[in-house]
UniProtKB/TrEMBL annotation:
Residues 447-466 have a biased composition (Basic and acidic residues). Residues 43-200, 256-422 form the Zinc finger ZPR1-type domain. Belongs to the ZPR1 family. It holds the Pfam family jr-ZPR1. GO terms for cellular component: nucleus. This is Zf-ZPR1-domain-containing protein.
Length: 473
């Protein structure tokens, strides 16, 4: 059997696993076109309540994973409906994507929305609420929001004139975007299941396109129907160490809730001191129920006045073995490797240079070439030119990991919480260049520093108490 046939067999097996058990009831009409892979199922029309036909197709999306396209049509009332469903299970973490839409190419980026996702037009401060899942483009979502708001304006003018007037500038802003006159603007897509997506491109740089993975809260797990212990939320973050202060080197176990299966588990924490840097806390979670594992590093201390930029020249295997701490606020760049990792993408990591590059490679490969994709086809719609470009990228990254390629990496951390091991300390290591820089207004805003008040807050706390005393007197 050829590799292409193997891949098709894998998709068929996954398709059967996802759908087969749902349509084995008496009376269901189940047919499959062996050439196209389309499955036809007899189902009930939600409009006229007679039987219609639903067509389903399992599709591999490049940079994402498998989805199921559903298309329903009723021959009696001619009602039609198109939706998508994820062919993957709920992911271990939720995901939030942010995109600066600057041109027509960005406007045509593919968007996949699950039933639990929230799409926001950040520039206008509006959001598209949770609803039916869909596979569309950024333009398609903007068009849907515009039609939904504009279609009921006449009714609002009579019944809710204040709401009508408030929506006028928002609808005008959406129309301006659709007319290609509103560039640039920012959109975001937040999905606690991790099964929604905005397509990236190989030319994304800076903060134009960002993805942030985050652990779900207990409330989000309950909403998704995967919460195992109703009292688990009471245990989040609770610990009773014997000592008043955390003892460096001692492991503390905290009862928590597994992000993967929502059952009870423990998160272990340990404070360690990095020479010539600062103290950090390493967190590790291992669930005995589902096998979920994760680790993260948190740094403490006061907020520094400036950010820090660290540039390391990697020349050999010794440099690959250097310890490296990348905080969750740190961005990583390398022109030689054509790698750009935005803050929050990998979270906090304390590893080696080789280990960090390996994590970047494995995460990207998992998004582009699915872990079960033995052919390396990258999905049903990946262009051959894109495939060749990604193959060259991974080959170069593998060469760097194996010590066959010299390169330079730069860690840029606005909170100055990242670190690269200095092999010559306390003498000067000429392969490391460290410099401070002034944070941009955008970085200050993202870190919440503009709203932080560190001086005079005592007076603000006294005022409510004084006012309450005056009212009582």
């Amino acid at each position: 059997m050829s590799t292409e046939e193997d891949h098709k067999a894998q998709l068929d097996a996954q398709f059967d696993a996802q759908l087969g058990s749902q349509f084995e009831k008496p009376g269901d009409l189940v047919e499959r076109n062996e050439d196209t892979g389309v499955m036809q199922v007899e189902s009930l029309c939600m409009n006229c309540h007679k039987n219609g036909v639903t067509r389903l197709l399992l599709l591999r999306v490049p940079f994402f994973h498998e989805i199921i396209l559903e298309s329903f049509e009723c021959e009696h009332c001619h009602w039609k409906d198109n939706t998508i469903k994820s062919a993957s299970q709920i992911q271990e973490k939720g995901a939030k994507y942010t995109l600066d839409v600057e041109n027509e190419t960005d406007f045509q980026r593919q968007v996949i929305r699950s039933d639990f996702s929230v799409f926001k037009v950040e520039s206008l401060g509006i959001e598209m609420p949770k609803g039916s899942s869909q596979m569309t483009t950024v333009e398609g979502v903007i068009q849907t929001i515009h039609e939904s708001l504009a279609g009921e304006q006449d009714l609002r003018k009579e019944q809710a004139p204040e709401l009508h007037d408030a929506l006028v500038p928002i609808i005008a802003g959406l129309k301006k975007m659709l007319d290609r006159e509103g560039f640039p603007f920012q959109v975001s897509l937040d999905d606690p299941t991790g099964n929604s997506w905005i397509a990236p491109t190989t030319t994304d740089s800076g903060s134009k396109y960002k993805r942030r993975d985050y652990p779900r809260t207990h409330e989000q797990n309950e909403e998704l129907g995967i919460s195992g212990d109703p009292d688990a939320v009471k245990n989040e973050g609770v610990t009773e160490p014997e000592d008043a202060e955390i003892v460096p080197g001692q492991v503390y176990s905290l009862p928590s809730e597994c992000p993967g299966c929502a059952k009870d588990c423990f998160t272990n924490m340990k404070q360690i001191e990095i020479p010539y840097f600062k103290e950090v806390i390493v967190w590790g979670t291992a669930c005995e129920h589902c096998g979920y594992k994760s680790s993260e590093v948190k740094t403490g201390g006061e907020v520094p006045e400036k950010g820090k930029r660290i540039t390391l020249t990697v020349e050999n295997e010794v440099d690959l073995a250097r310890d490296i701490l990348k905080s969750d606020t740190c961005a990583l760049h390398s022109e030689e490797l054509e790698v750009s990792v935005q803050p929050g993408t990998l979270g906090g990591r304390f590893t080696t240079v080789e280990g960090l590059l390996t994590e970047i490679r494995d995460q990207l490969r998992g998004q582009i070439f699915d872990v079960d994709d033995t052919t390396g086809s990258g999905g049903d719609s990946m262009a051959s030119s894109d495939k060749e470009k990604w193959e060259r990228f991974f080959a170069r990254l593998d060469s760097a990991i194996n010590g066959e390629l010299k390169f330079v990496i730069t860690l840029e951390d606005p909170m100055a919480n990242s670190y690269v091991q200095d092999l010559c300390a306390p003498a000067i290591d000429h392969q490391i260049k460290t410099e401070e820089y002034t944070r941009t207004e955008e970085e200050e805003e993202e870190l919440g520093l503009k709203d932080m008040k560190v001086e005079g807050y005592e007076e603000d706390e006294k005022k409510p108490a004084e006012e309450a005393a005056e009212q009582q007197s």
